[in-house]
Amino acid sequence: MKEARGFISNNYDKNITVEDVADSVCLSSSYLSHLFREKLNCTVNNYITRVRIEKSIELMSMRELSIQEISKKVGFNSQSYFTKIFKRYIGVTPVIYRNKFK
Fold this sequence. Notes:
Layout: H1 2-11, H2 18-24, H3 29-40, H4 44-59, H5 67-73, H6 79-90, H7 94-101
Helix pairs in contact: 2-3
């Protein structure tokens, strides 16, 4: 698990899949998924998304970066999708979060 989480932390900005993570730790994707559900109570994809959202929050303090640039830096291909997912996890849009909390 530690190695899988490390792989995600080092590659969250890329288009990584469950299979990529599983390959990095020499496990099958189904067994890795089982471990994530058992140990972290979430799916691998949910964990990847959570890491991306946490990293985006860290980048919010860099005012010179636009929300679009932040979304790209944390591995989202679309700013609108990033905004949708950010709001789902945090409860407000990235713009509102940045203006209110940073």
